[in-house]
Amino acid sequence: MDKVLGITFFLLVIILGAGLVIGAAQRWSWLVDPPEGYWFVYSQSFIKKVFGTRVLLFFTYAMGLLAIAVGIYMLVKGIWT
């Protein structure tokens, strides 16, 4: 049962990472151009306010790719052990 829960969780991590990459590529406004007024509660707004839109776009791609990589690694590790 624990293995099924782990597989489900890391599949969701991969889906989340794919959503970040797709959202960055499609330039979803809530993801790569959020209102700066939410900078104190929304990390994307904070990054945009402090570093600018280009860094926010890079950060979104990086976080998406990192989530995909970690999810795949953990799935492979969990299935083979």
Furnish the topology, listing elements before pairings.
Elements: H1 2-26, H2 29-32, H3 43-51, H4 53-80
Any key phrases for this structure?
81 residues; single chain; elongated; mainly alpha
Could you explain how this protein is built, in words?
The model has no long low-confidence stretch (mean pLDDT 93). The chain has four helices and no strands. Helices cover 81% and strands 0% of the residues. The chain starts with a helix and ends with a helix. It has 81 residues and is mainly α. It has one domain (2-80).
- Provide the domain count: 1
Q: What profile does the largest beta sheet have?
A: none
- Low-pLDDT segments: none
Mean pLDDT across every amino acid position: 93
Number of strands: 0
Question: Radius of gyration from the CA trace?
Answer: 15 Å
Helix coverage percent: over 70%
Structural class: mainly alpha
